[in-house]
Amino acid sequence: MVESKDVDASQAEPTPVLSQDEFRSVVFIIRCARVIAFLQRFVPGKYLPPVEDRIPSSILKRLIHELKKLIPKWSWTPSARKLPRSPAKIGEELFYAIAGLRLSRAELLRAGYADCVAVLDETYALLYSIGNKARARKDRSKSEKAEKPS
Q1: What are phi and psi of 116, to 5 degrees?
Q2: What does pTM read for this prediction?
Q3: Are 84 and 90 in contact (CB under 8 A)?
């Protein structure tokens, strides 16, 4: 009889979907997304990337909302690392953290977090395209500088 109570108690507790490191990455992504949303809304434009390179606030809100579902309410989880001070670095770190968390897509899908996986994929694709556009602009400006002295 004692064994059946133990089995029932263990079944009642939700099993964690992600490892502790992945939980810390989730917290880091949420913090980055909040800071980016704040900066894009309240900081003057000279400190931010061009308007076409900004992340839409709707995606940031969705990302935060879906990732908060992954964190158990009963435990406080520290962030994986400190936020960078540079707005450009925050976006870069957000991209790498999302890329790392996307490695757990199968576990998230199996646990029923399809919306979370969808917003991670959408944000990743958007950040990847922003990075490509920024690199292309940088390469164009380098080639224009190289042609100018001739």
Answers
A1: -65, -45
A2: 0.76
A3: yes
Higher pLDDT, 8 or 96: 96
Neighbouring residues of 140: CB distance < 8 A, sequence distance ≥ 6: none
Whether 72 maps to a domain, the answer reads: yes
User: Would residue 36 count as lying in a domain?
Assistant: yes
H helices present in 43-113, as ranges: 57-68, 87-101, 105-110
Query: Three-state SS for 10?
Result: helix
Return the pLDDT at 3: 52
pLDDT in tens, 42-74: 887 777 778 888 889 999 999 999 998 888 775
Tell whether 3 is covered by a domain: no
Tokens of 44: 């003057």
CA distance 46 to 62: 26
Within 10 angstroms of residue 110's Cβ, the number of other Cβ atoms is 9
